[in-house]
Design brief:
Blueprint: H1 2-19, E1 23-26, E2 29-32, H2 35-80, H3 90-97, H4 101-128, H5 133-157, H6 163-181, H7 187-199
Antiparallel strand pairs: 1-2
Length: 200
Amino acid sequence: MGLVLVSLYVACEIIANVTAGRPVQLGSLVVPSAVFIYTLTFTLVDLIHEVYGKDGTRMVVYGAFLANILLAAYSYLVVHLPAPGFFLEANAYATVFGSTPRIVFASLTAYLISSLVDVEVYHVWRKRVERWKWSRVLVSNAVSTLVDSVVFIFLAFYGILPVVPLIKGQYLIKMAITIVSLPLIYIPSLRSRVVKAAAR
């Protein structure tokens, strides 16, 4: 179960970075398309915390961070390697995979800080509140997604776009997704019950 969760977590991180360049309009809000799957990673890291504890989860966060750096570095390399004349989609490819250094830096920094904040907040809340597992996800995500939104938007767009509306929009969407994802925290408990029942 733990390896499946880690695999899903890293996959969601990579998918989020690949798809982030496409904006989506939801009513009056405009957000990166990656916001939906990226927000899910905060709940996934809480699930991983249930399996591997604080120290193990921090190692998973660092591993995913290295995977994101590898993606960014290799994408930069591929975009700047010479393309053959018959490849007519070089500009489109560069648009998708050639994020500006400022955006890449903002994304990686926001991810690392907010994910480590999530691990710490979840750990503290888990020790204080044994019941209501859903509250661990709600509290840790409420803090970490705010940190993520503030750090990313500020580093990526300060001086270019008005940052406060962007932060508000992203945070509202992330919290809506968090609320929908709350039942996922009960997956390990359900699995253990099924295993125990099967063993009888």
